[in-house]
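Q: What structure does this chain adopt?
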Amino acid sequence: MKKWTALSTTNEDKRWQALSDALTAKGCENEFVPWSGETGLIENLEAFEVFDHIRLSSRIAPQIMKHLKVQSSWTTLLGVVDGMNRTPHGWWPLCALYEAFGQVLIQLGQDLDTRGNVLIAGAGGMARTAVAALFKGGFQKFLITNFDESEAQNLIKDLRARFFGLTVNWVPTDKIVLLPGESSVIINSTPSIEDNSLLVELSYLNFLKRPGFLFDLSRRSKPNALLQEAMDAGVRSVNGIEFAARTDILWAKWGFQTDIDGGAYRETLKSAFA
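A:
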């Protein structure tokens, strides 16, 4: 019986239980145990020794990573992970969201215009992962917009140091509507909440070449203002539930050596995020 948990600043227990049930249905004995301990300040990893697998949110991962004895050169370069598997040599971190992005980019193939800019809303771990995946996929020019300029500038500084040949610049939120139509992709990694005025600014889509692509990483069954406007304007889009499903399917294979049915699991997540 494999026991696992998730550390996050938001409650996604319905999602994790859905994954646990999907694993059980495939004959994988597992138990998801909601984490009730400290997440604000984790001094060491001793409390997690009862688990075989841990999922991590992008805000929790940095404080976990500093306690790890080993990790791959790629996750070190990437600077973000979204889960860990316990091995005889300690915890081994990986980033399934990065691999999920890679899958989507390969699937879209020649439909993507790598000559255009990529406009990214947000400056957290998901934004960092998106930049890394798109940069590997051939994009070189990135724009970052975010309510917290200092957070965005820290990300920009770090990206310039990590990825040679990447161009990345800051765009104030009140300057989005003034951008020329030179972006071929937009990434939204900000939350779908009613008072997120940034989604309204982005939804004008004046900066986006047509038809363009929207990768919306917010995980809600109901489309937010940006996703709805993109759909109405004929902009091709991939929503956050698709990315969540792909990452969970990857972790099912990596952490539990189990292949779960993607189509059925996507439908289950739609209910979990309703």
